[in-house]
Amino acid sequence: MITVLRLGHRPARDKRVTTHVGLVARCFGASRMVITTRDDELVSRIQSVNDRFGSNFSVEYQRNWKNYIRSFDGIVVHLTMYGEKLGEVAGRIGHDGDLLVVVGSEKVPKEVYHLATYNVAVGNQPHSEVAALALFLDRYTGGAWEKEELGGKLKIMPSARGKKVETVS
Ligand code: SAM
């Protein structure tokens, strides 16, 4: 099971970005996102996507990120431009057991770099937690997300032009 920990979410300021972190996590193979600030609106936004497009992806609140990382039973990957290159470290990250992927927002506390099993850079340039997460999950799952059916009420039929959506009863 893959969990994404979104550090430093500020409900008013980070509304869109944290929603996108959640949607990317949901789409590319994670089962849940953990946030450390309560945000019921965020939970309902993601739930509404689940209701229409499927999956049991959940958003959970944990007050203390440090305890959460410390007590996580599995591999912890922290995505940071200061880390080891994705292409060099990816092969070393195990696939047995659970995985926690940590992404930041503003400045990430130093401890995170020490608590992580791997600090992974998706390129050593600054960009975005959304992009870093998408690329990392694609690489980690070997693209398996592409074959997954999330089983929603609405099913999009891939189409060269226009929008084709089936309602599944
Ligand atoms: N300036 C912040 C710092 O020094 O910790 C990082 C801000 S960045 C906008 C927000 C998050 O995007 C980071 O915490 C990291 O998770 C992710 N990120 C940005 N660029 C990245 C990269 N090249 N590789 C991996 N993750 C990256």
- The CATH superfamily is identified as SPOUT methyltransferase, trefoil knot domain
Low-confidence stretches: none
Q: Strands across the major sheet, in which order?
A: 3-2-1-5-4-6
- CATH fold annotation: Alpha/beta knot
Q: Quickly count the helices.
A: 6
CATH architecture: 3-Layer(aba) Sandwich
Biggest beta-sheet profile: 6 strands, parallel
The residue fraction in helices comes out at 25-40%
Beta fraction: 15-25%
Report the C-alpha radius of gyration, rounded: 16 Å
What would CATH call the class?
Answer: Alpha Beta
Domain unit count:
1
The H-and-E topology, N to C, reads as EHEHEHEHEHEHEE
Question: How many DSSP E strands?
Answer: 8
Oligomer kind: single chain
How far is the first residue's CA from the last residue's CA? 29 Å
Basic shape? globular
**Helices and strands: which structural class?**
alpha/beta
How would you state the average pLDDT, rounded?
Answer: 96
